[in-house]
Write a structure and sequence with these properties.
By secondary structure, this protein is an alpha+beta fold. Helices cover 49% and strands 17% of the residues.
Amino acid sequence: MIRLSDKFESMKRPYFMEALSRINLLETLAPFDPHVAGTPPLGLDLPTSDIDILCFAPDPQVFTQTVWDAYSTCDEFSVRQWTGREKPIIAVFAAADWTFELFGQALPVPEQHGWKHFQVEHRLLGIGGSRFRAAVMQLRGGGMKTEPAFAATLGLETCNPYEALFEMAGWPDEALAALLQERGF
């Protein structure tokens, strides 16, 4: 459950789009087709939430250098490259009272797992309405990550929540609505 003090604490930080603007992030990353994803644009953010930016980075060195040049002096800056699936670059830093996580992958953003998760979550929230949003937010407030919170709310606890949402990204709205109705939303 979200404590009232947490709500007031989160009010101290700027709206996520204002934070992006303050550090010129979308303009800086424009060559990499940046897409804002994660909980803030879904309206599911908590005081500890970060801002996720998904980017198309076919040349990881160019992406890394751009990020390094622009943000390496920010607090908590780190950059690393995963060794698995498509070897994405992940950069993290704090600025404008938010933590930012940049994800650069040599795959167009609409094809990335993170974007597909974000899109299906957005669709589910739109179809499921305020009761569904409240149920997901209750689990998030209890410490659950976003994809597991969606999966648990949908009664999909027995499967991998990330894979389940990735699969659901290809479903038509009618199928999502039927699942939500079946689950009481």
